[in-house]
Design a protein that fits this description.
alpha/beta, 5 strands, 5-stranded parallel beta sheet, Hypothetical Protein Ychn, Chain: A, elongated
Amino acid sequence: MEALPRRPSRRRWLGWLAALAAGPALAQAQRVQTPYRAPKVLFDIYLDHPDKLAAALYWVRSFFQPLFEAPYSLFPEDVRAIVLMHGTEIVTLARHHEARYAEVVQRMRYWAGQGVEFRVCGLALQDYGYRPEDLQPFVRIAPSAITELVHWQNEGYALVVPQITDKRVSIEQIR
């Protein structure tokens, strides 16, 4: 004779119901602590308008901020970072534009003081008619941005290309 399947006990049913009711209320996203050590990064900046450089520099801040805070607490000398510019943002580095781009120049000076290297494409400088003496003193001139990209990636630097778009909605509108 075939045994009839057992019906779940009342206690088991109540347990399932409790788990279903409590599950979504207790579930949440979990933070991770990735073991970051001695990162090397190359920010490739090529913008279609110099006013977008302020937004691109937030990518630099977003990279460094968690590294300098607990639990990582890295020192600036523990991190290698290069910002390579070869688009319209080059005009922000020209001394005669310092007043117009004072905020971004101040931020670049700050990051340069933290050990970030700011490099500019020598070919692009020629296109803009700039000479070394026209630029801020924290800038280094590379022969070619493309050649620099290849070189530093071959040296193990991670490539970060900031994506700067025109913001059409605020966070409050879409939250």
